[in-house]
């Protein structure tokens, strides 16, 4: 990653030199041009306090005939203050950008960053984050609802790969903090093809929406928090969850701790459920 700073553009980071070339070829290598591009919202802007944040999708021309799908997050006065620097106000997109770069560097499957930029315009802090689209994707929870129509080997392999991916995230002491099924995207999915179309093809899980993620020292605390969310909000069968947890424990080198981990996850889930019961 390299930094480019100009007098009128504030700060800009490009994912790589080729990414910068692609953006330049499409006339999108300047903050103002990207900020003002017309694109429909795929997520309606989220308004809070005096700011907003919204997501659009655009397509770029690359070196192949197939257009490159890009997700474009734009924000205005949508920021945070960190414990490390409580007096500096930064866009939440900057936190997501830093997390994605760190995860990509660690080999954790997450969206590839093409561009990040921010600028101060009067009292307005504006930020842009551009990431490459994950091809042929379906959320994990939607996939599991269709798993009865998929190859059993494919389902088991995807569950194992998802467990290995999350274990790798946790081995680097990252806690996702919003680990729902919709935030695990399965790439390479073809609804018309219930089994892999050719030898060597494979479904690949990716982690998205890492804006709230953080690093913690205790891997057990990370695992209990993240896996409890995944356990409660994904439509697992009992066999699928057992498969997931077994592969997670092996990949995370926590086999001896698997019984206590399973107990803690279930205890936390029961307490969450009890708190939501209406009073008698």
Write a structural description.
Helices cover 36% and strands 26% of the residues. The chain is α+β, with helices and mostly antiparallel strands. The chain has 2 domains: 2-132; 138-276, Transferase(Phosphotransferase), domain 1, CATH 1.10.510.10. Helix 5 (152-171) packs across helix 7 and helix 6 (219-233) crosses helix 8 (258-276). The protein is globular, with a radius of gyration of 20 Å. Residues 1-8 have low confidence and may be disordered.
In short:
The chain has eight helices and 14 strands.
| CATH-derived architecture of the largest domain | Orthogonal Bundle
Q: Radius of gyration in whole Å, from Cα?
A: 20 Å
Number of domains: 2
Choose one word for the global shape: globular
Mean pLDDT: 89
Class of secondary structure makeup: alpha+beta
Strand content: 25-35%
Number of helices: 8
Taking pLDDT < 50 over at least 5 consecutive residues as the criterion, the unreliable ranges are: 1-8
| CATH homologous superfamily (4th level) name of the largest domain | Transferase(Phosphotransferase) domain 1
Count of individual beta strands: 14
| CATH topology tier name of the largest domain | Transferase(Phosphotransferase), domain 1
CATH class type of the largest domain: Mainly Alpha
- In whole angstroms, the N-to-C terminal distance is 57 Å
- Which strand order does the major sheet show? 1-2-8-9-5-4-3
The largest sheet, given as strand count, sense and whether it forms a barrel, is: 7 strands, antiparallel
């Amino acid at each position: 990653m390299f930094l480019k700073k100009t007098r009128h553009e504030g700060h800009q980071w490009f994912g790589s030199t080729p990414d910068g070339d692609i953006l330049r070829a499409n006339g999108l290598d300047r903050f103002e041009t990207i900020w003002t591009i017309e694109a429909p919202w795929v997520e309606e802007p989220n308004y809070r306090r005096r700011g907003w944040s919204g997501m659009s999708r655009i397509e770029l021309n690359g070196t192949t005939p197939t257009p490159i799908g890009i997700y474009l997050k734009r924000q205005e006065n949508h920021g945070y203050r960190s414990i490390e620097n409580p007096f500096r106000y930064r866009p939440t997109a900057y936190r997501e950008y830093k997390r994605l770069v760190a995860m990509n560097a660690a080999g954790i499957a997450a969206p590839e960053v093409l561009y990040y930029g921010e600028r101060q315009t009067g009292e307005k802090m504006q930020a842009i984050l551009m990431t490459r689209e994950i091809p042929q994707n379906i959320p994990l929870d939607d996939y599991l609802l269709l798993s009865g129509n998929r190859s059993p080997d494919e389902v088991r392999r995807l569950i194992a790969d998802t467990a290995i991916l999350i274990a790798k995230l946790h081995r680097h002491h990252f806690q996702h903090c919003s680990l729902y099924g919709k935030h695990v995207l399965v790439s390479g999915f073809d609804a018309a093809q219930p089994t892999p179309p050719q030898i060597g093809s494979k479904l690949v899980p990716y982690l998205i929406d890492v804006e709230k993620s953080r690093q913690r020292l205790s891997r057990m605390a990370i695992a209990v928090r993240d896996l409890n969310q995944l356990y409660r909000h994904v439509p697992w069968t009992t066999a699928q969850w057992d498969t997931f947890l077994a592969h997670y424990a092996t990949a995370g080198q926590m086999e001896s701790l698997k019984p206590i981990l399973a107990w803690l996850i279930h205890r936390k889930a029961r307490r969450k459920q009890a708190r939501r019961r209406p009073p008698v």
